Known about the structure:
Blueprint: E1 2-7, E2 17-22, E3 37-43, E4 46-47, E5 57-61, E6 66-70, E7 75-82, E8 87-94, H1 101-116, E9 119-123, E10 126-131, E11 134-140
Antiparallel strand pairs: 1-2, 3-4, 3-5, 3-11, 5-6, 6-7, 7-8, 9-10, 10-11
Amino acid sequence: MTRTLESRGADDLGQHDTIGIVVKPLGAMSAPLGDNEWTLVELDGERVESCAEPAPTLVLDLEEAHVSGSGGVNRIMGTFALSESELRFGPLATTMMAGPDPAMQRERAFLDALARVTSYELDGRLLTLLSGDEAVARLSC
């Protein structure tokens, strides 16, 4: 969409200057991969429902190749390797707190999915983690 604005100065009353502004919808803008908190919205093809437990999250520090976040119950920390065509998570460590069974099962499934990641796709504010051609997790920011 292009919007035209009129500008009038005291010296040029009656003359119109136009300025073209391109407005891109916010949802279409790509979020940077690093330094955003990505929240899990889909895991192994299943939509992650909002529930009492916090959703798993990831933050990728591109300069340090360090990942941090939450599995929903426990904190996650570790490393990752990123190149033009691939993303792989290195050894990940977690805290060792216990939580409700459904939250613990989701956390284990999330960690298992991260271990299978080989690449990613970034579409606007949606990050898809892939194992080969299969989406194993989708996160949004």
